[in-house]
Design a protein that fits this description.
The complex is a heterodimer. Chain A contains nine helices and 21 strands. Chain A is α/β, with parallel strands linked by helices. Chain A folds into two domains: 309 residues, no CATH class; 63 residues, no CATH class. In chain A, strand 1 and strand 2 form a beta hairpin. Chain A is globular and about 70 Å long. Chain B is an alpha/beta fold. In chain B, a hairpin with a 2-residue loop joins strand 4 and strand 5. The longest helix of chain B is centred in the middle third of the chain and has 15 residues. The chains are: A alpha/beta, B alpha/beta.
């Protein structure tokens, strides 16, 4: 347990890399190969996360170490009607099955001016100067992100031209299937919001029930001066799935970035946010909602760095935990010495629906400037029995009353999603499962 | 048949007996008022009628339109036509008044075997009722009672009562925390709902509300029992003499 098993898992992945280097990556350019080599080396140095590390103290990956994951070799066919309900619009949509691009299910081209969406390929290089991942994770490294760089195949590069206002959300759908065995997929997404541009990007990570799957997605967002990037990642996971994702954001002056991660199902979901506010007057809003039951586990781990003055950050995370599910929250706000007039607020709330559900909250502030406004708050609660009686006294049955209160709690996060169609679908998805479980009808409206 | 018939009701909370053999009969079309000193059991009575399980009924019976009310869950009692306007209405963040009230209306209709109301019909209904009881429509899209002033919360109770059209409206110290103007508006709301098929049980600490909602009967509740019953003059009498004369005096009721 602990070190030994994670070491074995690390070695398995290093070996997997060696195999792929000789096969799938053999035709890549020397530059691409050496970038991967460098990445696997960095991953191997710290290896797979394990519980002895502070950042992984509350999330036990042992169930995952024991599985030998492999990468799917060719794109699989899946029935279109399985994922059609998730389609947002008629705009750009890229679909990946087990990490591999599916041409038939995608809509890769767009007539929209001002944005280019291309598949993540081996020709994509990471310019040291603008390496979003390196910059944002400087103080709180992400070894899994290096694994993603080493093994990654599949993903997209979204570049928004200066001044472009892209109306339709760009959608990326990553599906994990049941029939490919224990598959690992490591998609990589880069979003570059040009100066004064505006774009919305949605990633849906969907699991079709079956063998345990492992997803290690990394999304890097750079918001240039005055840009506005709106990002949502949903992890709608099958039972037994492992999702260890990272979202790295670097913001230049006067930019606005918002990102929301919504989780249902799965065995273990870990969401790492790394944000660096590098330019003055930048505004960052990161949010998350997990609705879990069974023995599912979610861990939100944030690091938001104010590296410039006058920036504003908001972190708002909520978990609804039923049965013996578990929620973990670790959030650090880091304020550089020069980041005067910082305004940072971090809130996390857990709603425990059963006696066996558990939550862990670790807010942290590390402040080196002297003129800042930073607060954090954590609340843990159960359904308000007085509110339930009040609703019942007006004719609402107990089951529906409980569902209403849960919806009210979760709604606060979901209602902030502005992308058309996504909010309503997520609400239906999250609440339908719950209503069914409690054997109640949806509130009769 | 009486609308509500309570016989020898005993109820406790946390092992303490609060209602000690309460008797009360209410007929349709009547407005009854219950007054009494603090701790006498006024709110307990209201909560027990609504079905709050924090209170344990240890003896007695409660019949509503001849049906045993004690057998029914709170939502079923609402379906039967009981409505409680709370003394301290709860705030419910994240749930809009609009949304919850539509669900309540349709739940009650479902209980009665009626078809649910369409969105259009529902909106028309609440507009009508909001105007009737002078409730600010803008509050409908906000979360239930969240950030509402004391007066707005009480008016929300009356508005909900108007929308659900109960047969028995129980008002638990609806006047507490209200100034004269708010009191008048609440009273007007209740009065606009008076009907020969409907009855009200107005629980109040002070007499003033009864200047506006004029009762047919006034009952004095002391130490868990109704010790005196009279007409509306009894309320004024109590205002002048206080509760101690009733507490100390013999139990007597006005012959009907």
């Amino acid at each position: 347990m602990g070190d030994g098993e994670s070491h074995a898992a690390t070695q398995r992945l290093v070996d997997l890399y060696a195999d792929l280097r000789a096969s799938a990556f053999a035709d890549e350019s020397a530059v691409a190969r050496s970038a991967r080599d460098a990445a696997i080396e960095r991953f191997a140095k710290t290896g797979f996360p394990h519980r002895r590390q502070e950042a992984w103290k509350y999330t036990n990956l042992a169930p995952m170490y024991r599985t030998a994951f492999s990468m799917d070799s060719s794109a699989r066919e899946i029935a279109r009607d399985l994922i059609e309900p998730y389609f947002l619009n008629d705009g750009v949509r890229l679909v990946f099955v087990n990490g591999l691009f599916s041409e038939s299910l995608s809509q890769p081209t767009t007539t929209t001016q001002g944005v280019s969406v291309t598949l993540m390929g081996s020709s994509t290089t990471d310019d040291d100067e603008s390496d979003t991942l390196e910059r944002s994770a400087e103080r709180d490294p992400l070894p899994l992100a290096f694994l993603n760089r080493a093994l990654g195949a599949g993903g997209a590069v979204i570049s928004v031209a200066p001044g472009a206002q892209i109306v339709d959300a760009i959608q990326l759908i990553f599906v994990a299937t049941a029939d490919a065995g224990a598959v690992v997929s490591l998609p990589r997404v880069k979003v570059d919001g040009g100066e004064n541009s505006s774009v919305a990007v949605v990633e849906n990570h969907l699991g079709l029930a079956g063998a345990p799957t492992l997803a290690i997605p990394v999304t890097e967002i750079r918001a240039r001066p005055g840009a506005h990037v709106d990002h949502v990642r949903t992890a709608e996971l099958a039972a037994g799935a492992f999702h260890l994702g990272a979202i790295a954001i670097v913001q230049e002056q006067n930019s606005r970035a918002e990102s929301c991660v919504v989780t249902t199902g799965g065995e273990i979901a870990r969401h790492d946010y790394r944000v660096s506010l590098d330019g003055a007057d930048a505004d960052c809003n990161v949010r998350g909602l997990a609705m879990l039951d069974g023995s599912s586990h979610v861990d939100h781990h944030l690091f938001v760095r104010h590296a410039a003055p006058n920036c504003r950050s908001r972190e708002f995370f909520k978990n609804v935990l039923d049965d013996s599910s578990r929620g973990v929250f670790c959030g650090r706000i880091y304020v550089d010495q020069d980041a005067q007039k910082t305004d940072g607020v971090q809130t996390n709330a857990a709603l425990l629906l059963s006696d066996n559900a558990k939550t862990e909250s670790r807010p942290q502030l590390e402040i080196y400037a002297d003129d800042v406004k930073c607060t954090h708050g954590a609340t843990i609660g159960q359904l308000d029995e007085n509110a339930i009686f009040y609703l019942q006294a007006r004719g609402v049955t107990e089951g529906v009353a409980r569902t209403m209160l849960i919806q009210g709690f979760a709604g606060e996060i979901l209602d902030e999603i502005r992308i058309e169609g996504l909010r309503d679908r997520l609400k239906d998805h999250a609440f339908a499962a719950m209503a069914q479980k409690r054997q109640t009808l949806q509130p009769a409206v | 048949m009486p609308l509500l018939e309570i016989r020898n009701l005993h109820a406790s909370v946390d092992g303490n007996e609060i209602l000690k053999g309460l008797n009360l009969t209410i007929n349709a079309g009547e407005v009854h008022s219950i007054m009494g000193p603090n701790g006498s059991g006024k709110s307990t009575l209201a909560q027990v009628i609504a079905g709050d399980t924090a209170y344990e009924v240890t003896a007695g019976e409660m019949l509503f339109k001849g049906r045993d009310l004690l057998d029914l869950a709170p939502d079923e009692r609402a379906g039967e036509g009981v409505f409680l306007a709370f003394q301290y209405p709860v705030e419910i963040p994240g749930v809009s008044t609009n949304y919850f009230l539509k669900s309540a209306v349709n739940s009650v209709r479902a209980y009665r075997g009626e078809a649910p109301m369409s969105t259009v019909a529902f909106l028309k209904l609440i507009r009508e009722k909001a105007a009737l009881v002078q409730f600010n429509e803008k509050l409908l899209s906000r979360a239930v009672n969240e950030g509402f002033s004391g007066g707005e919360k009480k008016r929300n109770e009356i508005f909900q009562m108007a929308t659900l059209e109960p047969t028995l409206g129980v008002l638990d110290e609806t006047d507490s925390g209200l100034d004269i103007d708010a009191l008048r508006i609440v009273a007007q709301g209740v009065n606009s709902l008076r009907h020969e098929d409907r009855a009200f049980l107005v629980i109040t600490h002070y007499q003033r509300l009864l200047d506006y909602i004029v009762p047919d009967f006034v009952h004095v509740l002391v130490d868990g029992r109704i010790v005196k019953t009279g007409g509306k003059e009894l309320a004024m009498e109590l205002e002048n003499t206080g509760y101690t004369t009733v507490e100390n005096g013999a139990v007597h009721t006005v012959a009907s």
